[in-house]
Each structure stands twice: as C-alpha cells, then as structure tokens.
Amino acid sequence: FLAAIARRAPLWINLEYLSAEDYVERCHRLPSPLMSGPAAGLTRWFFYPGFTAATGGLLREPDLAARQAAFASEGRQAWRTRHGIGTGDCAISLFCYEPPALPQWLAQLHAAPPAPQATHLLVTPGRAAAAVQQAMASMPAPEQGAVTRHALQPCPQPQFDEMLWACDLNLVRGEDSLVRALWAGQPLVWHIYPQHDDAHHDKLDAFLDWLQAPASLRAFHHAWNGMAPASTLPAITPALLQQWQECVQAARLRLLQQTPLIEQLQAFVTEKS
C-alpha cells in the first residue's frame, strides 16, 4: 500500500480526530516526513478538524443554512405534528451509547417533566433503544407513563438533521452527530465515546470550555458521561433549556464565521500540490 502511494506521489493528508484540546491548533498542518520504508521521501501532513479558526474547521455543506431556514419556516411544526408532538410540548431526542446516568435521568424525567403539557422522548434505534429498555424495566410502572416514548426507525442523514432541528433538546453521541447538533442550534448534551484510560474526560472538558458551557450544562455532561455521580444531574426545566440554547447558538454563530472543513482541505491541497 505504501509503495503504491509512493508511485502515485500524491499529497498525503492524515485527517485526524475532532477535538477542542490545545494540541489541535499546535499540530494542525504540520508535516511528518517519512525517512525510511517503501514511502521514504514522502511527507504526511496532519490536518485537524476543530472548533477554532486555527484548525481545519467542521463539515458544513453549502446549502445547510438554507435548508435549515426553510425547515424552520415550513416544516418544523409539520414534523412535530406527524410525531404527535403538540404546541408547547417538549421533544427530546436520544442518541447515545449506555450513559451511566441514564436510569437516574429517566426517573427524574418521569418525576418532573420539563413541559407542563407533555414531554416526548424520541429514542433512536440500536444501543440507545436497548439502554432505555433496560433502564425502564427497573422503573415502577406508574412512573413509566409520565413521558411518551417514541421508538424511531433508522433514517438517512437529512432526516436525522430534521429531528435535531425539530427537538427542544438533543442528546447525541460521537463526533459526527455532535457537529450536526451544533449546526441545529438547539440545546445539546454530548455522550463522548468512552476510552478505557479516561482520556475522553480531558477531551470533553476541552469542548465544554470552548462551548463556554454554563455550570448546569457542564454538570449534566459530567454526570451523563460518568465523570460525576448520577445524583448530580440537574433537572431539565424550561429555564435551563433556554440557557443552554443561548449557549449553543452563540457557539454556532462563532462556527459559521469559520471556513468549512472541505473548503479548507481544497485550499490546502492547492497550496501544497
């Protein structure tokens, strides 16, 4: 494989992991010459996605803002109506691994729903659905009726985006869905991929620092990701969601002022070719 790369003499780019940690800005666009082996003489270039102007930016398709604006004006209420979500109801999407605090949060959600009318929990298929089913099995039956649960089906990315745009709170997992939730501009909670040596703790805190997360949002993230006891989960309230939305929308505005990842990659290839 390396010999084939060397014969083609391409521009070799290592597109790295997404992180808000300090090393990203330091390492972005750095060269790594290969001194030996089948590809000796080539240079690998490290290209880091990120959240600041000193990084490679985030994926953002050119028509994203237009599609989102059209959905807000014409499709959001229709989407919510199709899913049985009424005006004034609270819709929460759940796309997660197995959060340590999930049972505590579900019990809390049923005991004190954030909306006086109705609260809807939209559960994505796979690990999230299995985790919810396991947690609900241990809850008393009367509590299980306080929140309406919707079992979602797998869907294409554009429909996943519409769900994020339509919900009042999005609990997402991994890197790609975090980015889509940021573009959605709705309150979000990130379930970061857990690593055996807890290296993800620093990664999560770096993101929360960049996000300028208020204390309540930071506390929820720490409990949700097992960095603090589940008992420290703040209860979801309309005031809390408003605070979180203001935080996320301010971050989204900062990101919209930056050049998207693909454009930066194209410019880098032109520069180095």
Describe this structure in words.
The chain has eleven helices and eight strands. Helix 3 packs across helix 6. The mean pLDDT is 94. With 273 residues, it is an alpha/beta fold.
Please give a quick description of this structure.
With 273 residues, the chain is of the alpha/beta class. It has helices spanning 2-8, 22-27, 64-82, 102-111, 127-137, 157-166, 176-184, 199-211, 215-224, 238-256, 261-272, and strands at 12-15, 31-33, 43-47, 90-94, 119-123, 148-151, 169-173, 188-191.
User: Could you spell the SSE succession in H and E letters?
Assistant: HEHEEHEHEHEHEHEHHHH
Q: What composes the largest sheet?
A: 5 strands, parallel
Point out poorly predicted stretches. Answer: none
Arithmetic mean of pLDDT: 94
N- to C-terminal separation? 21 Å
**Structure annotation, total helices:** 11
Using DSSP, what is the number of strands?
8
**Level of helix content?**
40-55%
